[in-house]
Amino acid sequence: MKEAVGGVYISRFAKKCGFAEGMMRKYLSAESVPGADKLVRIAQVAGVSLSWLAMGEGSKEGGAGQDGVTPAQLAVVLEFERYAQRRPDAMARAAIKTFVEEYNAGLLEIGKIADIEQVTEDELILWRDIAWERRTTKASIEEGILRTSIEIVDEFLESSGQVMAAEKKARMIVAIYRLTATSEGVVDRPMLVNLLRSIS
């Protein structure tokens, strides 16, 4: 994120984003993790790709990058993933339906993201497919990526003092594996552990 802000004064950058300077400093020092709506605004002001800013992958340039979705669309996908994670027992299709209904009615805490007033179930499914398209074949498992995924989850659990049921831990490992696989095995571990803390 520091690279996105560049040499601009933090107070000036925060003002352009519509944030308090103190909050922007917390984001830059990784004391706090910005939500999807804040990431969209930071990406817009900095003129960088949201996927590059949030996950360190794809082109740094703004607009629809390699992932084929706009920063706002990716923010909706990320917000859905947070939403779905809070409802682990819901089937994916049911979670999508409920999320879309609540988003369109303005009932979500996040409100509306950028200029996306309404979303359809089909749009959300398409954006998810594009954003999470895997660059590895489904049948192959990369041992290094799997090991890293398990270590990240264990680091998160140890640092947060949480105990997690085996099924939930397995789902988290799978999610991190997929994220790491789509970023070609390169992942910012501290950022990911902070992200896990913020959504747990």
For the secondary structure, the number of strands is 0
| Amount of beta strand | under 5%
The SSE string, one letter per element, is: HHHHHHHHHHH
Oligomer: single chain
What can be said about the biggest beta sheet?
Answer: none
List keywords for this structure.
11 helices; globular; mainly alpha; 200 residues; 3 domains; 434 Repressor (Amino-terminal Domain)
Describe this structure in words.
The protein is built from eleven helices and no strands. The chain has 200 residues and is an all-alpha fold.
Concise summary:
This protein is an all-alpha fold and 200 residues long.
Topology:
Layout: H1 2-5, H2 10-17, H3 21-28, H4 36-46, H5 50-55, H6 71-85, H7 92-104, H8 121-131, H9 143-160, H10 166-182, H11 189-199
